[in-house]
């Protein structure tokens, strides 16, 4: 399951909506919505994402967070490290080879650390 799929499922259940009802409201099949929730489909189109945001009546900051979840919800990630440092290639390969052995707490810790480093780099570059 992707972060977006998890969020859609959570919001749909909180609303008490079936996959069939939500799918009809946003113009997709229930099978597609199920695949999206389970991470078997990639990031939805911008148009579909806007329909989902409208369906849940999401506004402002929550809508931005929802779109960010979509951007980080590609179930199959491909990294091209050509032109990057050997350390970058090593990191990409290390994650690709071993991410399935990490538990959720470890994954969240690594993700938080990377986000902090990226925020610092972005502030330093501003």
Residues in helix, %: 55-70%
Number of helices: 7
**Secondary structure: number of strands:** 0
What percent of residues are in strands? Answer: under 5%
SS content category: mainly alpha
Whole-number radius of gyration?
17 Å
H and E order: HHHHHHH
Largest sheet at a glance?
Answer: none
* Overall geometry: globular
End-to-end C-alpha gap: 35 Å
Oligomer: single chain
Low-pLDDT sequence parts: none
User: What is the residue-averaged pLDDT?
Assistant: 92
Report on this structure.
With 126 residues, the chain is mainly α. Helices cover 68% and strands 0% of the residues. The protein is built from seven helices and no strands. Helix 2 crosses helix 3 (30-37). The protein starts with a helix and ends with a helix. The model has no long low-confidence stretch (mean pLDDT 92).
What's this entry about, in short?
The protein is built from seven helices and no strands. With 126 residues, the chain is an all-alpha fold. Helix 2 packs across helix 3.
Tag the structure with descriptive keywords.
mainly alpha; 7 helices; 126 residues
Annotate the secondary structure layout.
Layout: H1 3-15, H2 19-26, H3 30-37, H4 46-55, H5 60-71, H6 86-98, H7 104-125
Helix pairs in contact: 2-3
């Amino acid at each position: 399951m992707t972060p977006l799929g998890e969020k859609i499922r959570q919001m749909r259940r909180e609303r008490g909506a079936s996959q069939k009802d939500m799918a009809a409201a946003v113009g997709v099949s229930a099978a597609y919505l199920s695949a999206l929730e389970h991470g078997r489909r990639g990031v939805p189109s911008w148009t579909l994402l806007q329909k989902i945001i409208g369906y849940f009546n999401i506004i402002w900051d929550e809508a931005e967070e929802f779109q960010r979840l979509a951007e980080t919800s590609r179930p199959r990630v491909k990294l091209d490290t050509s032109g990057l440092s050997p350390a970058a290639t090593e990191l990409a390969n290390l994650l690709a080879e071993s991410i399935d052995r990490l538990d959720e707490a470890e994954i969240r810790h690594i993700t938080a650390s990377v986000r902090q480093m990226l925020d610092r780099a972005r502030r330093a570059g501003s």
